[in-house]
TrEMBL record:
Keywords: Folate biosynthesis, Pyridoxal phosphate. Involved in the biosynthesis of p-aminobenzoate (PABA), a precursor of tetrahydrofolate. Converts 4-amino-4-deoxychorismate into 4-aminobenzoate (PABA) and pyruvate. Pathway: Cofactor biosynthesis; tetrahydrofolate biosynthesis; 4-aminobenzoate from chorismate: step 2/2. GO terms for cellular component: cytosol. Belongs to the class-IV pyridoxal-phosphate-dependent aminotransferase family. GO terms for molecular function: 4-amino-4-deoxychorismate lyase activity. InterPro entries: Aminotrans_IV, Aminotransferase-like, BCAT-like_C, BCAT-like_N, Class-IV_PLP-Dep_Aminotrnsfr. This is Aminodeoxychorismate lyase. The keyword Oxidoreductase does not apply. The lineage of its organism: Bacteria, Pseudomonadati, Pseudomonadota, Gammaproteobacteria, Oceanospirillales.
Length: 284
């Protein structure tokens, strides 16, 4: 995973250099995407790129870029296997530290690959349920923008780790929003619930796919506000993200979820996802 992309060039990672005055570095003035590729094929690539456009528009960073060939080439140069592509666009460098945005500043584009497991190929038995903690959502009110200002997310993930958990679900004004690096779902009496899209959560591509596939398979689902009591009493809890797909949550703080096992609706949805990914890869 040695070759990275930086501003039009493919380079060995140790030769890729960014200015110390880059606004991404100084102010977190930048956005990103994490996109899985399986055997060189992008998974929900169009949806990721649409969200990137949304983030760039929100920051008023103007770019007219065809991302697909750039990312496809990068994946090829890194062996074309199962990788997640990290793509970051910063507002660029004005050659000095100045808060106000200078007019003609040129964005910095950086992308790299990291190898990932093909969870679908490995099979359902390999999926390990996780524990989450619930903690305060200290982020700003534009979580729909996939910004690199991730300090609150990083601090709560550390808190989760120190509590023996793998994720943190965030709570704002009594409502649960999302995880530090994922969306979440609960199941109550056969119905899937997840918080609605808005400025308080990231519109997850995996979240959208779960809802889409639930609709296609006639599984009832609703977008609704979810509080702590509903979370701990749910029959099933899941988290979702591009690199982890759908993962069952077996424990929330000190509460065991359902019977403490991976739930039946999670299994069904995981199988539906596996078929979807197989079709995407093989065209069958
Ligand atoms: N995170 N919410 C947050 C805060 C996230 O950071 C992520 C993804 C998601 C899920 O979005 P998607 O299903 O499109 O991956 C929701 C990525 C994987 C990351 O930061 O590494």
């Amino acid at each position: 995973m040695d070759t990275v992309y930086l501003n039009g060039q493919y380079l060995p990672a140790d030769q890729a250099k960014v200015s110390v005055f880059d606004r991404g570095f100084l102010f977190g003035d930048s956005v990103y995407e994490v996109i899985p590729f399986y055997q060189g094929i992008g998974f929900r690539l169009a949806e990721h790129l649409q969200r990137l456009e949304h983030s760039l528009r929100a920051l008023r960073i103007e770019m007219n870029q065809d991302w697909t060939p750039i990312l496809t080439r990068l994946v090829e140069l890194n062996g074309g296997g199962n990788v997640s592509v990290y793509l970051q666009v910063t507002r660029g460098s004005a050659g000095k530290r100045v808060h106000v945005i200078e007019p003609d500043i040129v964005p910095t584009v950086f992308a790299c690959c990291q190898s990932i497991r093909d969870i679908y190929q490995e099979g359902i038995d390999k999926v390990v349920g996780i524990k989450v903690i619930v903690t305060a959502d200290l982020r700003w009110h534009r979580c729909d923008i996939k910004s690199t200002c991730l300090l609150p997310n990083i601090l709560v993930l550390q808190q989760a780790k120190e509590s023996g958990a793998q994720e943190a679900i965030l709570q704002r004004d009594g409502a649960l929003t999302e995880g530090a690096s994922c969306n979440f779902f609960i199941v109550e009496q056969g119905v899937i619930y997840t918080p609605p899209i808005g400025t308080e959560i990231l519109s997850g591509t995996t979240r959208a796919l779960i809802l889409e596939l639930a609709d296609q398979h006639g599984i009832p689902r609703q977008e609704a506000e979810i509080d702590y009591q509903r979370l701990i009493h749910a029959d099933e809890v899941w988290i979702s993200s591009s690199t982890r797909a759908i993962v069952p949550v077996l424990q929330v703080d000190d509460y065991v979820v359902g019977d403490g096992q991976k739930g039946p609706l999670w299994q069904r949805m995981f199988e539906i996802f596996t078929r979807y990914q197989h079709q995407l890869m093989t065209g069958e």
